[in-house]
Amino acid sequence: MALIMSFVSVAISILYTPLLLLILCIIFLASIGKSLGVRRLYVNILLKLFEIFERSLLICYGRQHIEVAKIKIQRTDSSDEEDLPPVPDDKPPSAIIKENGVNGTKMTVIERQEILGPSPELNYKRSTSQERVQNGPKTTQGNGESNMEFDLSNCLDLVKAGMESIIEDQVTSVFEAEELRSWNLLTRTNRQYEFLTWRLTIIWAMGFVVRYMFLLPLRIMIFVIGVLVMVSSTWVVSLVPFVRLRTKLGKISYKTSIRVIIRGLSIHARFHNEQYRPRANGFCVANHTSPIDVGVLSIKTCFSLIGQRHNGFLGILQRALARASPHIWFERSEVKDRHAVAKRLKEHISVPDNPPILIFPEGTCINNTSVMQFKKGSFEVGGTIYPVAIKYDPRFGDAFWNSSRYGMLHYLLNMMTSWAIVCDVWYLPAMTRAADESAVDFANRVKAVIARRGGLVDLMWDGQLKRMKPKKEWRELQQEEISKRLKGE
Amino acid sequence: MGNENSIPMELCSNSRVNCIDFKVENFDADEIRRLGKRFRKLDLDNSGALSIDEFMSLPELQQNPLVQRVIDIFDADGNGEVDFKEFIQGVSQFSVKGDKLSKLRFAFRIYDMDNDGFISNGELFQVLKMMVGNNLKDTQLQQIVDKTILFADKDEDGKISFEEFCNVVGNTDIHKKMVVDV
């Protein structure tokens, strides 16, 4: 025991200076928003490693599984192509789903039928299943129109749709961590491979040591320093008496501290189409996977954040941020009052100097395979909307925050022990509501654009289903649709 | 034709799923494993059987007007719950490897509510009512029912037998319409 202690103390005394220098270096680079390309290199090395793993999996898998493994290899190939922007610009929006005569929140079985691809498409193939939505046959509709009366086979589509949702449904699956088809050497994502062979176990163990013994302490230190920088710098800024100078310094302190915190979470974000980056006041609207989204987007732009007041760790950050720049935090009781919220938003928008407001209209975290219904609230207020699509690369660690399963700190720990959090951010051209467009339609239009760019499935379902029971009206809408078809309308 | 596999043991051990050693024709081991996982996920109270409420916890299913009929057919022993064996057997009728006859039989059972081998006028009415809700008048619905039965009922006994049902539905693409990827 004493030997170990002395060994550790020697190791610490030797490593102390280089480690400190490393941290200082990282923090300095982070705060000025520069990168030496180390993370890019690291991510590429990881990709190679996963590839090697894939191959050895193929070798040591039993004969009966070889086919499965082959499919997996193919899938990695195709996922490499994903690194290019996945959707060509001329492709019609995935929101074609709406074509089948959907109104508002409704999601008819018929659409569902065609969205649902076979389960192997789980990982990266979401966009192809969307293509099928456009090209696929619209069987039921054709049926209803050609013969005006009931046919005994009319029920088959409903039955089939029912069976499909029994086997795999879209709604509950988006609230659970996305399932990876190939293992990324993290136990969390797939336990099935953990003890497959000795060789893999050793690789996994080495990865474990690197992640927990080296990366985790480093990341925690950077993260803590980031939080301290945020709290102290906002405090200093709040003491500055001149308003304009204060706003300016507030922006700098916000960006700097968030960049440091983001390094602590090992985030490697790739930004595309920066010419569309929100610059003026307005709403920045993005799909929501985890609280990290806020940090990722704040690397490049200073935002006003809006949300519920929290206690604990998030509360500390919120109070610190509110000191230096205009953020909108609501008390729990106020959130229900939609008019009060709308009023605060309007007030904020009316000051041209204010930074844009960052909003996640889904209202809940989704596992980054889909986009769910956008709440119309922020689309009613007016002003310019800057859509942003965020797509995380699940191979390096799943960024989805399953809030019903993990607490905030547990989630942060998961993030810090992942390989990295790699994500693509696409800025999209600013959008404004057309004169004759309802807020709901506008919200759907923005959602479709984001889904298409991010390669996500465009769902009509309400994200609140995570906590709520489904409503009865949906079935009635469904019945209405069927009777229309029976009448031959 | 179908490769026979018994339920893998892991399923029996790590869940309270009540699985006796039975043969499943249309699925391979991997598919059974996936279905087992799905079953356990749906089985919210871990009772080893799915109740109607557990099925209805899926929003997509909840909005399907015929879900009650589908669950009824799944529930082969009529105890109001679907156990794993019934679950697998129900799903297997939608397998690509499933034969046309069993698919037709499943479709027939949607209408044959009391499982007496005939679709009566009343049964067809009830199923149609489920499908359209209150959007059609009962008289309109009755007209549709009468017309459908008149068209299908070749032996003029006022109800549709399985054979008569097959004559009407059998020529549609049942192989395409009643196949679900597992």
Alpha carbon gyration radius of chain B: 18 Å
Please report which band the strand proportion of chain B falls in: under 5%, 5-15%, 15-25%, 25-35%, 35-45% or over 45%.
5-15%
Q: How many helical elements of chain A?
A: 18
The structural class of chain A is: alpha/beta
Shape, principal axes of CA atoms of chain A: globular
Name the strands of the widest sheet of chain B in spatial order. 1-2
Order of helices and strands of chain A: HHHHHHHHHHEEHEHEHHEEHEHEHEH
Helix count of chain B, per DSSP?
A: 11
Family (chain B): Belongs to the calcineurin regulatory subunit family.
GO molecular function, one term (chain B): calcium ion binding
Pfam family, one (chain B): EF-hand_7
Protein name (chain B): EF-hand domain-containing protein
Overview of the structural elements:
The complex is a heterodimer of chains A (489) and B (182). Chain A has helices spanning 2-31, 38-60, 66-81, 109-115, 126-135, 139-146, 155-167, 170-173, 198-238, 243-264, 292-298, 312-324, 332-335, 338-350, 377-380, 408-416, 439-454, 473-487, and strands at residues 267-272, 283-286, 304-308, 328-330, 357-359, 370-371, 385-393, 421-427, 457-458. With 489 residues, chain A is of the alpha/beta class. Among the domains of chain A are: 2-31; 192-458, no CATH class. In chain A, the strands form two sheets. In chain A, strands 1-8-7-2-5-3-4 form a seven-stranded mixed sheet, sandwiched between helices. In chain A, strands 6-9 form a two-stranded parallel ribbon. Chain B has eleven helices and six strands. In chain B, helix 8 crosses helix 9. The model of chain B is unreliable at 1-22 (pLDDT under 50). Chains A and B meet through helix 7, helix 8 and helix 18 of A and helix 2, helix 4, helix 5, helix 7 and helix 8 of B. Chain A: GO terms for molecular function: glycerol-3-phosphate O-acyltransferase activity.
